[in-house]
Amino acid sequence: MFGFGSDDDGESKFVDQPDEDESGDASQYEAEEQEASAGPDPEQESLTGDQYAVTIEDVERAGQYEVVANTRGEGPVAGKKARRMFERAAKEPERPLWIGYDDTARNGFREAPVRFPALRRHLWVSGTTGAGKTTQLQNKAVQHAYAGHGFCNIDPKASGDTIELLQQLPEHRLDDVILLEPGSPEFEKTIGINMLDVPAIEDETRREKEIESRLENLVAIFDNDEYWGVNMQAVTESMGRAMLRRNAEISLDPDGDPSAKYSVIDMYFVLLNAERRANFAMEVDDPYLREFLMEIAEMDDDDLRPLTKRIKAWVENAIVRKIIARRESTIDWDEIVDDDLILLVRIPVDSEDIHQMISLSVLRNLWSAKKRQDRNPERETKPYFLQVDEFEKVANDNLAIEDMLVRARSMWLSVTLGTQYPGQIEQDHEGVMRAMENNCNTLLAMRTPGGDDAGILMRRFDGYSASDLMDTNYYRTWTKIPLEGGRESEPVNLKNFAPYPPLRSEEDVRDVIRDSLDQWGADPLSDAEIQRELKYGDYNEAVDPTAAPAADMNPDAAALDGDGVDVDDLPEDTILEGVYAAQVQHEDEETLVEASLATEEVEKRLGDTGYQSQLSNVYEELATVKRGRRSGEVVVGLTPEGRTRVFSADTGSSASGGGDDHRYILQESFRAFTRLGALTHLPTQEGEELPDGVADLPIDPLADAETVEDVHELEAELEREYPELYELAGARDIAIEAETSTIKKPMQTLTNLRKAIEGDRLCVFTCKDATASGHEITYWPRRGEQIIFDVEGGEIDYGTINCVNPEGPKGGREFYNKTSKYRLGEEQFAVQPATEERTELDWLEQDGEVIARVSNGYEAARFDSLDAVTNPSPSDVNAYRAKTDEGEWFVQEGSERHGPYPSLSELREDWDDLYAPFIPEHEFPREPTPEDFVFVVFPDDDNDEYSEPMLYEQGELRPLFSEDRDAPESSTMDVEQETSDEDTGEVEDVEAEASMEDREQGASGAGDSERAKSRPESDDRQPRPNPPTSEKIEQATKQAAVDPDANTTAEHSHSESDSGEDSGDGEDSGGLFDRL
């Protein structure tokens, strides 16, 4: 086997000649093979008894061993031989790390190891997308997990890699998992980190060392600006030292209030003006520290701008703000390295600054924890493994990577760095590259198409060139195997192992994450909580700097008002967005547009900057803006890099959090609504309550008007200047929801509608084209309508909105399930007995009662009214789980108590949680109307019939843009409705519905006449009415006192829905809120 043998193994015979000592090792592993055959079935479960969540159809062999297993639906996974090699680490934690194999005809199968001691000397894994780098890192992590080691995996691209890794981890390690994903829209809780937190340390000397260590980390994270210098470092050190010492005192005090601790956001508001700086200095006891803090108080605000500007960018970022405002950390870095915990970090935004801030914080804190572990004789120095994928996104001169790599060996911190573009690191951070080359002893180099990048990697392999790596096949690795005595083998080209198979589904992984966050996380801070806990100033000064007292104003916090601000303070992303908007509204993406039009769009987004004349200089300075002259006028436009910057700045996790379809639909939505004239933005997701995108009106009649006459004039101006946008939305802003996969989950579609109604926005569901799957372009919008409207016999009743499952009982309703657990109280959740077969939970309303029934017949809960469902008591459910004072779980089933269970994982072997129901009356702030939503479909590029975005509304399809409505193929049309008896619950993907087309053939005949009755009779479109929210009703009432005609439109828009075609006989028309 590779690298196994006596100390006198010759490099020349590394591949070809196993010696006698090596055969002893071979015998050992042959014995293990025989031992394994007597254990769990290797085709079905791991050595630790976990079931593989795959169906193996055939295998591929190398010599006599199965190295690849081809599965149904999951693609190739590691074969039995590779799986057992990984899993045996559970019995022998210091086994080698297996990185690949060779299967030459002469030698048969020979596995390649990196010996356990060699892992101290760090690894460097590099390769292009799809070459196998991420699989190599995941297989490495799986081996560490089986061995019981702690590790941290940082995934800067926040793709599905972390989810895949969680699917692969053995069951017995799941309780050790901590997921750090700032701004995750999917989970209710998040990990909290206060960068200024200090643990309770009695010894003063150790405490001061800890403060200095954390201060060093803070300076490294802050120092990311060309204007940073000695003064800013000194200010940061003194401010940070004072706050860290205060926090340490609170930690030491048994009665100390954690909410009294300082956080980074406090530093910003203290620095914002001289009076606060002086007040803060006077609160510091140390006279020497106080002296310099008083000097800071006397400094000009301009002198502090590099520091305040740095923190200001974080305060204004929705995700980072919730991190830096946290006053008590929910995780302990020492506990992570001491207890072999698994820290998984996903960074779900495309901002390089946020990537660096979060990554630097994690890396430096783990490094500090390992140093503390090593210095403390009472703590065991244990192996801990740190791996960072796409390290070029994280690389920073302030990371002190050389110090970490050199000193980490003695402290048993093994570092693995993954790269795609090593040349980028060499160009931007030459010192970091030298540290990697000098200290990462094992290089795993995979296919790399770029000559410069490949050349850097192949410097390691004498006799080989960049072209050898550029021509390397996918899933192969160049490396040198570490040998005894610090020697290496000759360069070898190995085959990579296929990925370790999943042990659980993605849905099960989400339960794992929720359990982990229940243990390690906390509810995210709301902006109201942040503002309430501020020690200095007002949060509004950050989001609306005009709220600050005039005497306290700092140029960094100044509003962009008529007096103007420094041009450097104008956000570049917003300027690019304005230029792009001018292009798509007046020309196209490729054509330059008059600079004056671009400036108008910038002003719409920033207000009157007072620097219109200087924006031309900004255009000239930005490398992402092209300039020229046409007909005597200066014209501007974005370069391809500029357009990429617009989308990457705006898409955040809302675009990257989904798959390729989600990203594509959001970018097309951005283009379309910007072209209509809306101020379009795809906000960075910080939770489930933000829409995927917002498209605000360029003129807001209600917000911008002072009198009723102004309202009418502004609305007329909006209609005149932006007729298509006004026709679509009336006087309402728009919430954009990209329905790519969520439309298969009815609850999510209804939640998106609810969010839009609460925000008084028109909900525009934007959908992908289904024609490539053999369906009509209207397939997905129609599926959305079937979720919202009443459906009977496959036909949509456009006169009734009920937002329930059409498969419900006759005379009753079946509610969709939410993704959240059904909570009875604090740490109390309803449960049902676990079963081996898959079951479904149905929430049914019938005869005034609400019943939660499992598909196997088990009745999990019964309530005597809808209101009782939202205010449950434990007696309403058959069983629930709760926590004891000792932190263990138990299940109460009637009078019988089960447990205790030391962990949720063990409890879930016997019990499953119930999901809460989506009850429309309780979820929506008012009854939804057809005017609250519309669907837009974006045709594929190869769609021969449609080439522009199409509006779909109640069976009617028409172009979104008026100039496209005269085209013969795109005229307004009635659409044949596709029906399906699978249009409820968790909808299967289009491609998986084998008999869908057969069912669709029957969607004609009598159903067409019924649909014709419920659709508008004319194609003459009027602006969409604005269903009144309570706020608008109040406004309209006040206006009516001045203008008797002010409410005419609102009354008219509700006259039809209030009467209803089906309610003329006095019977219940089926409206949602009529049931309350």
Keywords:
about 1100 residues, alpha+beta, Rossmann fold, 5 domains, 7-stranded parallel beta sheet, globular, disordered N terminus, disordered C terminus
Characterization of this structure:
With 1076 residues, the chain is an alpha+beta fold. It has five domains: 92-192 and 330-526, Rossmann fold (3-Layer(aba) Sandwich), CATH 3.40.50; 194-328, no CATH class; 572-646, Arc Repressor Mutant, subunit A; 668-804 and 925-959; 812-916, no CATH class. Helix content is 38%, strand content 18%. It has 38 helices and 38 strands. Strands 18-19-20-21-35-36-37-38 form an eight-stranded mixed sheet, sandwiched between helices. A seven-stranded parallel sheet has the order 8-9-7-10-11-6-12, sandwiched between helices. Strands 25, 26, 30, 31, 32 and 33 form a six-stranded antiparallel sheet that branches. It is globular and about 85 Å long. The N and C termini lie far apart (74 Å). Residues 1-27, 539-566, 649-657, 965-973, 975-1021 and 1028-1076 have low confidence and may be disordered. Residues 1008-1023 have a biased composition (Basic and acidic residues). Residues 1-10, 17-35, 975-995, 1058-1068 have a biased composition (Acidic residues). Residues 1-51, 953-1076 are annotated as: Disordered. This is Type IV secretion system coupling protein TraD DNA-binding domain-containing protein.
